[in-house]
Amino acid sequence: MSGPAYSRLVGSTDALDLQAAADELGVHYQTAYRWVRVGRLDARMIGGRYVVERDDLAALDKARRTPTARTAPSAARLDRSADRFHDALVNGDEKTVGKLTRKLVDEGSAMIDVICGLFVPSLRRIGQAWHDGQLAISTEHRASAIGERVLGEFMPNPRGRRRGTAMVAALSGDRHSLPTTMAAVVLREDNWHVHHLGSDMPADDIVDFCAVHDITLAAITVTMPDTADLANATADRLRAARTPTLVGEPGRTLGDLVEQARHAASANRR
Ligand code: B12
Predict the structure, then answer these.
(1) pLDDT tens by residue, 44-81
(2) Are 99 and 81 in contact (CB under 8 A)?
(3) Alpha-carbon distance 51 to 169, whole Å?
(4) Does domain 165-269 have CATH number 3.30.950.10?
(5) 264 pocket-lining for ligand 1 (C-beta < 6 Å)
(6) Is the CB of 146 under 6 A from ligand 1?
(7) What confidence tier does 233 reach under pLDDT thresholds 50, 70, 90?
(8) Is 176 exposed, middle or buried, given 0-12, 13-18 or 19+ CB atoms closer than 10 A?
(9) What burial class does residue 68 get, using C-beta atoms within 10 Å of its C-beta: 0-12 exposed, 13-18 middle, 19+ buried?
(10) Ligand 1 within 6 A of 253 CB?
(11) 123 phi and psi, to 5 degrees?
(12) Domain covering 3-65 assigned CATH 1.10.1660 in the classification
């Protein structure tokens, strides 16, 4: 196929050139090239260059995420651990919180599944119980401190090329740092280099930080609804400065975050 035909094909949404495919997989070009040569990644040679169909890319990505040596725990397995995890968090039993997390990770669970399956539901229950007057504020503080420490121990550091450099923060007035930690963990797990600024960050400082550190994705977490306007206004400032920016809110999932971040990264390359 000639040059223009190659351009037409890689210009379509269904196919990518090998460099773009490597970027999406979070690996170096040479690694993707080797996978093509050994037949692990399907690709066609068009106009002297490799072209990868999106479906083939997705199939390899899925296979890489599925551990072969061990089977990742099912949703039912996570559910069974949920009550024990919650009791441990409420009772300040940090050792058990750490052990349950370690066991699931060792069995092949991704951190995003452990957080969404154990940490998030438990923290929601704790928040509701505090709201209903059934749990002391000291118990909530202790649980969130344990959550921060345990997540800190499991900050992933995957191999391979980074998708880009992300900044994660919550704005002034929002002291909920735990959701920013969760966002930092799942973005790292998905091969982003992450600057985790935590909560209560002044808008001007976030904007300056992103400009100075060549940030390719800003993720702003909103837990207190009254910081949503400031978060959206800050996002507008960042986007005006050409930093792709995502704004989360209570109930938005970490899966949404990862998916939108990937989308922003591929839009960035176009
Ligand atoms: C722990 C906690 C605290 C701790 C936080 C400590 C810490 N290190 O983070 C402390 C004690 C400081 C605290 C303080 C307060 N809290 Co509080 N807190 C919580 C609790 C129990 C967990 C918070 C959490 O981690 N949520 C994360 C998960 C569980 O929930 P989520 O909101 O769905 O988050 C998801 C998204 O944010 C997503 N995400 C993250 N980033 C991004 C980015 C993008 C782009 C996307 C798409 C998604 C995404 O990931 C998360 C996980 O899925 C919640 C309960 C709850 N339901 O959240 C209350 C809760 C948030 N707190 C509440 C309140 C009222 C307060 C206080 C006002 C209490 C007071 N009177 O002092 C203060 C406010 C302080 C402030 N100005 O911020 C209320 C908020 C009610 C409301 N909607 O207004 C809640 C909901 C409790 C309740 N049921 O009433 N809190």
Answers:
(1) 888 888 999 988 888 888 777 655 444 566 777 778 88
(2) no
(3) 37
(4) no
(5) no
(6) no
(7) very high
(8) buried
(9) exposed
(10) yes
(11) -65, -35
(12) yes
pLDDT at 4 exceeding the cut of 70: no
Q: Which atom of ligand 1 is nearest to the CA of 246?
A: 45
> Topology of 75-153 in CATH?
1.10.1240
Q: Where are the alpha helices (DSSP H) in the chain?
A: 3-11, 18-25, 29-37, 54-65, 75-90, 94-106, 111-114, 120-131, 137-153, 178-189, 203-212, 228-240, 254-269
Task: Kindly report the length of the chain.
Answer: 270
DSSP codes joined into one string, 22-87? HHHHTS-HHHHHHHHHTTSS--EEETTEEEEEHHHHHHHHHHHHS-SSSPPPPHHHHHHHHHHHHH
Amino acid at 38: V
For the chain, what are the domain ranges? 3-65, 75-153, 165-269
What would the two tokens of residue 120 be? Answer: 């998030």
Q: Is the pLDDT of residue 5 over 70?
A: no
pTM of structure? 0.81
